[in-house]
């Protein structure tokens, strides 16, 4: 489904068609991402599970970092005159290869018994999240009219009802979208909140850095993608050390990673002010490498630490909750930090001030992550 939706994005003839195809991409991602985490949880134990989760975290981080460069190269190359459409066409052969290799490389891990889709729960949580995100994205530009506050109130009601519906379904022996029993595990409930906040601090950073480089300093997609290599280099080095660090420090490896990432954001903010409107943006590279190293230490072991205590029978549900927390965190981060960025942009032609101020909440969020790590059980590890 994701592969077909990618082809539809590439073939889109209007903005509406592109948005529709992107929605289908999101639905496809929501279907398969929890299965990846569930398969790892159900199919591996002990040290093997820790290594599998580390591989998952490494792949996610590399995709976030090097995807910027690959996208820039494809757009700059303008293969066959397709321009931006190549960033969607590339998913087609990759997706086809993944489907072909799936049966050969991924072990089967079916659940026991038949389950029914929790339609009511799915509708409630989807509507609730839209009711939160939409006013955050549109509210500032429209002057926070009445509908934005009504939307927030509706979100609280919808998400509260979702919790009640899930508890009632579980009590009646049904198959809720989210298994309430999972949140009785301290390591999981604290870890999900931690993952949400962490992704608020990471996902939005890439977007607003790209806007600063491209709109503020006139870099093309390729130029900004090349600068992202600094973040990728830091990430690669730290990710190689993360498994050993997690085995030695346990949960505190997340603390070190989050604080290093916050420090990197601070160094970038100083560099942005030194660069001004006409200096070389290459001065951002040291801070970007530092932030990338923090991401490598935090992101790679995080799934393993959060899901370490989950029973195999709850693997798919737990994976779905964690994946949703990561995606919602990224969306919330973009919306919330966007209030700061666009609120400061105004006549700031080079966007230096806007980007600097947007780094403040990102650094604060990383510090909050370091504090939330302390809520995890002392023995929390990846295995």
From TrEMBL:
Its main location: membrane. Gene3D superfamilies: MFS general substrate transporter like domains, Multidrug resistance protein D. SUPFAM superfamilies: MFS general substrate transporter. It is found in: Cell membrane. GO terms for molecular function: transmembrane transporter activity. It holds the Pfam family MFS_1. Residues 1-381 form the Major facilitator superfamily (MFS) profile domain. The chain crosses the membrane at residues 26-44, 56-75, 87-105, 117-138, 144-165, 192-213, 219-241, 253-275, 281-308, 320-342, 354-376. This is MFS transporter.
């Amino acid at each position: 489904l994701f592969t077909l939706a990618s082809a539809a994005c590439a073939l889109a003839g209007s903005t509406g068609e592109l948005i529709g195809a992107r929605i289908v991409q999101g639905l496809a991602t929501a279907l398969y991402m929890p299965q990846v985490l569930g398969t790892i949880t159900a199919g591996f134990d002990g040290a093997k599970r820790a290594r599998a989760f580390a591989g998952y975290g490494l792949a996610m981080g590399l995709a976030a970092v090097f995807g910027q460069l690959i996208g820039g190269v494809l757009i700059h190359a303008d293969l066959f005159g397709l321009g931006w459409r190549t960033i969607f066409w590339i998913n087609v052969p990759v997706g086809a290869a993944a489907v072909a290799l799936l049966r050969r490389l991924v072990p089967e891990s079916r659940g026991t018994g038949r389950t029914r889709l929790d339609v009511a729960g799915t509708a409630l949580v989807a509507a609730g999240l839209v009711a939160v995100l939409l006013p955050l994205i549109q509210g500032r530009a429209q002057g926070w009219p009445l509908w934005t506050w009504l939307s927030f109130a509706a979100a609280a009601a919808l998400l509260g009802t979702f919790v009640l519906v899930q508890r009632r379904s579980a009590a009646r022996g049904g198959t809720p979208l989210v298994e309430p029993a999972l949140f009785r595990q301290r390591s999981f409930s604290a870890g999900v909140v931690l993952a949400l906040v962490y992704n608020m601090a990471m996902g939005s950073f890439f977007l607003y850095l790209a806007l600063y480089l491209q709109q503020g300093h006139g870099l093309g997609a390729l130029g900004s993608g090349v600068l992202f290599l600094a973040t990728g280099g830091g990430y690669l080095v730290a990710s190689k050390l993360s498994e050993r660090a997690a085995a030695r420090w346990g949960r505190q490896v997340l603390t070190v990673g989050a604080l290093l990432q916050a420090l990197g954001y601070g160094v970038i903010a100083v560099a942005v002010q030194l660069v001004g409107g006409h200096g070389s943006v290459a001065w951002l590279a040291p801070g970007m490498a530092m932030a990338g190293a923090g991401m490598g230490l935090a992101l790679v072991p995080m799934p393993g630490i959060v899901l370490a205590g989950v029973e195999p029978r709850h693997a798919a549900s737990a994976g779905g909750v964690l994946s949703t927390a990561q995606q919602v965190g990224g969306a919330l981060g973009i919306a919330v930090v966007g209030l700061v960025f666009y609120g400061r942009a105004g006549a700031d032609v080079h966007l230096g001030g806007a980007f600097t101020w947007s780094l403040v909440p990102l650094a604060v969020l990383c510090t909050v992550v370091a504090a939330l790590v302390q809520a995890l059980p002392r023995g929390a590890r990846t295995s």
